[in-house]
Amino acid sequence: MRVRKDFRILWRVLKHTQADKVLLSYVAFVFVCALLIWIFEPGITTYRAALWYCYAVISTAGFGDVVVTTFIPRLLSVLLTAYSLIAVAIITGVVVNFYIQVMENRNRDTIVNFLDQLERLPEMSEEELKDLSERVTEFRRSR
């Protein structure tokens, strides 16, 4: 259940930043490359074999069980490798940037809340003062 929630959050982040378009166009490009490789490479006789070859190129594993020998599939392999690197870089950057912004917002909200409490220090009850003191102590330990 947690994994589904995490994927929904990730998808929302990608949609919000429009990186979902990068991901979807990348996936479409992989399938189109597989189709073209299947058509132009005489050594690849099935679409499944072409997809397997694309996976080997994307993962940079290069298993060697399927090799292309003609110009167009080789060119597509180079383009697929470059597009893979770019797509991974963009998506990773978007997710990391989003996470950093969320953490900065949380910290800013915490600091603003803390400063609000400090402004009304003379009005606070003993229980509120004790709670504030414990939070300050906890904050110092975490640093």
Oligomer: single chain
User: Any idea how many domains?
Assistant: 1
| Count of helical stretches | 5
Mean pLDDT: 87
* CATH structural class: Mainly Alpha
Structure explained in plain terms:
With 143 residues, this protein is mainly alpha-helical. It has one domain (2-142): Orthogonal Bundle (Helix Hairpins), CATH 1.10.287.70. It has 5 helices and no strands. The protein has helices at 2-17, 19-40, 47-58, 71-119, 126-142. The longest helix is centred in the middle third of the chain and has 49 residues, at 71-119.
What order do the helices and strands come in, and which of them pair?
Elements: H1 2-17, H2 19-40, H3 47-58, H4 71-119, H5 126-142
Helix pairs in contact: 1-4, 2-3, 2-4
Keywords:
143 residues; mainly alpha; Helix Hairpins; 5 helices
Give a short overview.
By secondary structure, the chain is mainly α. It contains 5 helices and no strands. The two termini are 34 Å apart.
